[in-house]
Amino acid sequence: MQSLAWLTVFPELQALDESAKKLLVQYARIVEAPIGTIGYREGDHCGAYVLRLKGRSRVYKMSSGGREIVLYRVGAGETCVITTTCLLGNSQYPASTIVEEPIQDVLIPEPIFNRLMIDSIVFRQYVMQNYGALISDLIVLLDEVAFQTLDARLAKWLLDMGNNTIQRTHQQIADELGTAREVVSRQLKRLEQKGWLTMGRGVIEIQQRSALLKLANSG
């Protein structure tokens, strides 16, 4: 019989009643995937609720012209808002996901997810609370894309990386921001000319965080 030791990663679910836990023991399964694995593609059917135990994946949207924008990432202790949306609405995936760090997931099959949503108050509250929080994050992203200038978004992204040495290519940054590589290269060059950062091959060194912070807040 499968252990439910993984519930320690999701403490809110430890309050599940015994009948709900029995369903998870019987039907939930743990899967693993290496870097580069496609978790789902746009247009796929969603067959299971996902609880991330380890690792990280990137959820992204691809335009008809091949341009990518990162919507969000799913890390340990988190769920996927798009997966939840598809399960609740019985719809197909509107985006795709790829593994960035080796993952370990708990998968709850769609019929069991639906049953738990009806029968378990604890499970239903967990799903909806997480769903609401993730939707809020997506609204923040929409606000940034729609209303902030690209240079402000770029400055914010650089600062959010957490240190002064950033190992990313211009194409990777463009994918994060949902724009073209050439546009990112021009913006970075302007920031370098101001002395706010320096660039090497695949490496960016921040020189003036305070100046970038002011730019990020001006957008």
TrEMBL record:
<keyword id="KW-0805">Transcription regulation</keyword>
<dbReference type="InterPro" id="IPR012318">
    <property type="entry name" value="HTH_CRP"/>
</dbReference>
<feature type="domain" description="Cyclic nucleotide-binding">
    <location>
        <begin position="12"/>
        <end position="134"/>
    </location>
</feature>
<dbReference type="InterPro" id="IPR050397">
    <property type="entry name" value="Env_Response_Regulators"/>
</dbReference>
<dbReference type="InterPro" id="IPR018490">
    <property type="entry name" value="cNMP-bd_dom_sf"/>
</dbReference>
<dbReference type="Pfam" id="PF13545">
    <property type="entry name" value="HTH_Crp_2"/>
</dbReference>
<dbReference type="InterPro" id="IPR000595">
    <property type="entry name" value="cNMP-bd_dom"/>
</dbReference>
<dbReference type="InterPro" id="IPR036388">
    <property type="entry name" value="WH-like_DNA-bd_sf"/>
</dbReference>
<keyword id="KW-0238">DNA-binding</keyword>
<protein>
    <submittedName>
        <fullName>Crp/Fnr family transcriptional regulator</fullName>
    </submittedName>
</protein>
<dbReference type="InterPro" id="IPR036390">
    <property type="entry name" value="WH_DNA-bd_sf"/>
</dbReference>
<keyword id="KW-0804">Transcription</keyword>
<feature type="domain" description="HTH crp-type">
    <location>
        <begin position="148"/>
        <end position="210"/>
    </location>
</feature>
<dbReference type="InterPro" id="IPR014710">
    <property type="entry name" value="RmlC-like_jellyroll"/>
</dbReference>
